[in-house]
Amino acid sequence: MNGMYRLLKILPGIFLYLAIYLFAYYLLTGNWPNLISDSALMLTLITVLLTHRRMQQFLERHSRWFLSARVSRVLRLMEHLNRELENVNSYFELKNVLMEAFDRIIENTPFVFYVKEANMFYLAHTRRIKTPMLPVAHINDIYFQVIPKGKMYKPLRQMKFPPEIEADFKRLKLEYLYMFSGHSHVFAFLAVTADVHRLLQAPSVNVMFRRVNNKTGPLLESSALHMDLQHKQFEIRKLLEVSQKILSELDIKKVLDYMLDALEELIEYDAASVFLLKENGEELLSTSSRGYASRELLSLKVGQGSCGHVVRTRTIDVIPDVRRAEHYYQARPETRSQISLPMLFEGRVLGVICVESDEPDFFRDQDVELLKIFANQGALAIHNAQQVKIRLQKRALENELFHAGTVQRGLLIKHIPHIEGMRFLAENIPSQNVSGDLYDFKRFNDHTLGCIIGDVSGKGAPAALMMSLILASFRTQSKSEKTTCDVVNRMNNLLTETTIEGKFTTLFYGIFQSDTRKLIYTNAGHNPPYIIRANGEIIKLTGGGLLLGFLKNQEYIQKEVQLEKDDLFIAFTDGLSEAMNDQEEEFGEARILDLLQRHKHRPLHDIKKALLEAVTGFSGSTVQADDITLIIGRMES
Q: Which of 45, 240, 352, 412 is geometrically suited to a Cys-Cys bond with 307, CB 3.0 to 4.6 A?
């Protein structure tokens, strides 16, 4: 196929030369030639057209006259280039002048020209090379840092390039690299064949090429510095735009999308994604992305792939070649190099930003530094969005809890049932909008009243839900005048099956019988209530069993106490006894009992008021830490 292509390529030349031959023959002889007898001529034409380049190279290599002719031509072009360089004012003008000159000077053989940007040499221009044969698009400058100043060329074999880069150059027979150096290091290089190298080493050409080289290097250096300054200014402008977006936009998806778009103008990535760490701290979810075929959200576990790795290690992960990476998750088959950075806010990982390139070893140190800034800005955007979301959720929750507190207070009994010979009052003061404390009363007949007081572990909404469940359970179980231990046992089994994990309840259930002057009770782990007799005797109501919701089928017992006239009954939750002052000293049960002894003959309302005022005065300005629930009763006859 290659031979046929070459033959078809020279057909126009054959027809042109044949036409010239026919016309010249006719002018000289007055007759047309016999082409059949002149087949040797046709064969010669084809041979010349097929081999003229190689014949020219052969003659230049072995004939001083042919080489001298080419040297003279190249020398004229070099002198013209040298003069043009005097009037160059910009990088792009310099690049165009060089490329046009090289195209004329190196006319029949392939060459490549690379120009340095930051710490990478990029392919800027090629000649006589088809697209599938193009060499690597960029080369790290570390291979040029050891070249001494003033060194104009170096053989390919001495450059110590990676095997794949060296193979690209060898395939094109580019055996020599000509460097263009500034004041400090190489800023561009020209890769040529051995034939061109031989031409450039001709004494007169070499002298003129060195002059061109000495001008071109500093011009490239100053142009590179100017471009670098412009690029830095562009970076700063983009970073300011992103910062303004973060301050003005609360939608985190829009901010991250804008950030990736801005980043694309600064780093030539082929794909990029921002992952956010889920609340469980175990998964990453792709929130914003560019360059991926699938539009489905990608989810990674912490530790999975490069992104999961940086969450666990909180370090930057630069992968020059993903094919040799230990921790890489393939999201697109074209990717060859990747950078992943954690987005940290006050030491906490909020997400990961990841950029990918289809070229191996593509990203530079400057790219990493720029990505650090974007990662910090992204972390700030995520934090701000989360804080706004938390504030809105908190405000909504507070509103819901306010209404829930109203509903919950409606569950507590408003008017305590009356039985002959006894009086009761109760108080519930939640530390928050909703309470985990509870009390309730159940009237069985004119002389019998059931009473419970309880405290759910914890505070807030979960405790309030448990409180509602316990009230519903009590009101269901206490419809008949059953023993207190039986009711408590049934409530415990129900709570064991339905309780929120880690939520337990202390409960005291007592049945007052005014006609027989008895109190039958079961105490399931609650603060012991007290009976204070008129003569000052104090009876502590303990015993019954474990708190509710801990273990199923627990055995509960009930006890009895004989009541006397003017006996004072008090039951409370630990929010009363454990109230603290600013020295972290508890109010304590001793203070409660002392106050009750001093006020036991006063009306129940006065006793409650005195007790609550004493607790408030003791606590001072300290915020109430726990719910307070209080029941006070008296045997009147």
A: 352
Burial of 531 (0-12, 13-18, 19+ CB in 10 A): buried
- CA dihedral defined by 566, 571, 575, 577, rounded to 10 degrees? 60
- Tell me the three state secondary structure of residue 293: coil
The model's pTM: 0.43
Buried b / exposed e along 557-568 (16+ C-beta atoms within 10 A): ebbebebeeebb
451 bridge partner residues = 441, 510
Q: Which residue has the higher pLDDT, 7 or 133?
A: 133
Contact 302, 274 (CB under 8 A): no
Specify the range with the lowest mean pLDDT, choosing from 131-135, 155-159, 233-237. 233-237
Hey, what long-range contacts does 406-414 have (CB within 8 A, 24 or more apart)?
A: 408/434, 408/435, 408/464, 408/467, 408/468, 411/468, 411/471, 412/438, 412/439, 412/440, 412/471, 413/439, 413/440, 413/441
Hey, what are 403's tokens? 């209404």
Q: What would the mean pLDDT of 573-592 be, rounded to a whole number?
A: 88
Task: Please report which helix (H) or strand (E) contains residue 180, including its range.
Answer: strand 176-181
pLDDT of 296 strictly over 90? no
Confidence of residue 624 (pLDDT cuts 50, 70, 90): low
Residue 629, pLDDT > 80, answer yes
pLDDT digits (tens, 9 = 90+) for 100-144: 999 998 978 899 999 887 778 889 899 888 888 899 988 988 899
The whole-angstrom separation of Cα 314 and Cα 341 is 8
Q: Helix H segments across 413-459?
A: none
Q: Which residue, chain included where needed, has tokens 């009930």?
A: 558
Cα 111 from chain centre: 44
Please measure the distance between the N-terminal and C-terminal CA atoms of the chain and give it in whole angstroms.
122
520 contacts 511 by C-beta, under 8 angstroms: yes
The closest of 178, 183, 268 to 220, measured between CA atoms, is 183
Cβ(127)–Cβ(103) below 8 Å: yes
Cα atoms in the Cβ-side hemisphere of radius 13 Å centred on 373: 15
For residue 277, the surrounding DSSP H or E stretch is: strand 271-277
> Which DSSP helix (H) or strand (E) runs through 438?
strand 437-445
pLDDT value at position 63?
47
Does the pLDDT of residue 155 top 90, yes or no? yes
CB 426 within 8 A of CB 629: yes
Q: Rounded to whole angstroms, how far apart are CA atoms 187 and 179?
A: 8
Rounded Cα gap, residues 503 and 23, in angstroms: 111
Q: Please, are residues 566 and 637 in contact by the beta-carbon 8 Å criterion?
A: no
Beta strand extents in 467-598 (DSSP E only) = 505-513, 518-524, 530-532, 538-540, 544-545, 559-562, 568-572
| Total Cβ atoms within 10 A of residue 265 | 11
